[in-house]
Amino acid sequence: MSDSTGSPDSIDPHEPVINAILTVGPLFKRWAMALVAVVVWAIIAWTWQLYHGLGATHLGRPIYWGLYITNFVFFIGVSHAGTLISAILRIVQAEWRRPITRMAEVITVLVLFFGVGNVLLDLGRPDRALNVVLHPHLRSPLLWDVGSISVYLTASSVYLFIPLIPDIARMRDVTTGWRHRLYARLALGWTGTPKQWHRLERAIGVMAILVIPIAVSVHTVVSWVFAMTIQPMWHSTIFGPYFVVGAIFSGIAAIITAMVIVRKVYGLERYLTEEHFNNLGLLLLVMACLWFYFTFAEYLTTWYGHEPRELAVFNSKISGPFAKFFWTMFACCFVVPFTILANPHTRTIKGTLVASIFVNIGMWLERFTIVVPSLSNPRAPVQTFGYWPSWVEWSLMAGCFAAFALLYMGFTKLFPIISLWELEPMPEAHAPAAARTFQPAEASS
Amino acid sequence: MSRWGLVIDLDRCTGCQACVVACKHENNLPFSTPETADVGRLMTWIQLVAADLPGRPMPSSLPLMCQQCDRPPCTDVCPTSATYLNPEGIVAQIYPRCIGCRYCTNACPYAVKIFNWTEPEWPESMAGMRNPDVSARPKGVVEKCTFCHHRLIAARERARVAGRELAPEDYVPACVQICPAEAMTFGDLSDPHSDVAALASGPRAFRWMEELGTQPKVVYLREGE
């Protein structure tokens, strides 16, 4: 294998990836400081809310849920990026997935913490959160959520960690000091014997299959939190699959966005090629069409059925106070991505990035227009009001996004963001199937 | 076992809201202003709403409190069993267990469960005037009408001390007691001879939104018949 820079053989062919871990540039520091400032501000806002109670939000009767629950559903949705995409592509042996799986899996694990975190932010008594374990009520969909998200977090963490082991061992062998000690501990004694490779392959194979039903169940159960009530436009049988489709949709968009940033910042053009963005762009296009299909089916049924309470919510979205959010969502989730991605000339790296950013905004708006309009139009004729989040709610949302970005950046400074061993030919004669190589672009040219 | 129920005669109700005031005072609910009501922070367990009822040309003024459903949508969804249907049919709320997730408030089609957004406050002049029988609710928990359950506990104690059975007049919620138009009747629905059972099975009786399968134990009597 020839190296692009033409340097001596002793230099690691994956130097750009290794370098990204071991060096911290000025750009990284500036971004990290800005993000830390946002997180600190969010912590101040959170302290304010803990002291004043949820009165610090602009929630009220009957709009008891707002920005936090929107973010909860959004983050859990984005978490479907990694695990599901990576697992499905692994099982169907789509070998082009090799350089992108880890990037995706990290999103899953990190973003789940913020999904769970937003529920905790939304609790009136976060100090009593453990009551769901001490006094569990099995009929509550919220408890089903606690169960499915815990399983999902565990499974996706394991699914992220297992394929990391050979790369951690590689880092262990090239580092000294605290890094060496950390990697040595995490590598679990990996030396790359045929027996270890065999076990690794089996573990990845099992986990890849296991995480798929778990991931599907997670967003289905999230949707059931709404669908199990009898509130207008929440009580829908289509919600389970509709939420799963939306989750995969926003997940792919999140992967593409992360890929473009990582590729640019760390100069990984060799690893993340036009082909990857084209393939993911096509996947995103398919999901945009599926999303349109589900949305159309959901809204047409409600409109045709003409049930007055359902129609009140429907009208508030189509032409009422939530119309601006609804139609922006529609443009962001379907019109823009479909136009860009259906055309091979615009399905470029830049094109897929623009489409992905629109999809992420659109899917956030979709969660908002599911949570708030139904609550704003209750069955009982009690006084309602126009909900707009308070500075505390906006600050905590900004803090969540900033903390996610920080943790993601931190991960790239600790572990290879590209799964290196999966890109290399196996040293052993009996290399397992999971380790069949996909060479980076230049090496194959 | 008793099944407590309430009948409200809409023909007799004058909309004077004495029940609203009595309930607030009895159950230690903090004051609310029109401003707090405008941002959804009204603290009340009973209020008058304008409800569209079948056969009426105009919305009717309906005293609305927890309907004490026999199939309550709110208790099913509570992740900690902090709200539950007690054996006598009252939908109860355990304040020290409630985590404040507000799932029950969203599941209730009547929107009658109230959340404590802030720590309750009373003016200085109200010091020492709160009802000692009703526990204070901290910020961050959900509360609701309990049919003045503390009155049932006290009445049962008094009857036990006097060595007799609980009589119908022993236990009456504050709203029923205060109603100057005598529009409200309270009692045991499982006792076929009680006034409340007779009225609840009369031709004018209806249960609001009963088509949702909630099986309320608050029964309204139609007006204009």
Helix tally of chain A equals: 17
The tally of strands of chain A reads: 0
- Second CATH tier, the architecture of chain A: Up-down Bundle
Shape of chain A: globular
**Fourth-tier CATH superfamily name of chain A:** Formate dehydrogenase/DMSO reductase domain
Number of helices of chain B: 7
Residues in helix, % of chain A? 55-70%
Largest sheet entry of chain A: none
Please write the CATH class name of chain A.
Mainly Alpha
Q: What is the fold named in CATH at topology level of chain B?
A: Alpha-Beta Plaits
Let me know the number of strands of chain B: 10
β content of chain B, as a range?
15-25%
Structural class of chain A: mainly alpha
| The level-1 CATH class of chain B | Alpha Beta
How far apart the termini of chain A lie comes to: 11 Å
CATH names the topology of chain A as Formate dehydrogenase/DMSO reductase fold
Q: Which stretches of chain A of 5+ consecutive residues score pLDDT under 50?
A: 1-9
- Which range does the strand content of chain A fall in? under 5%
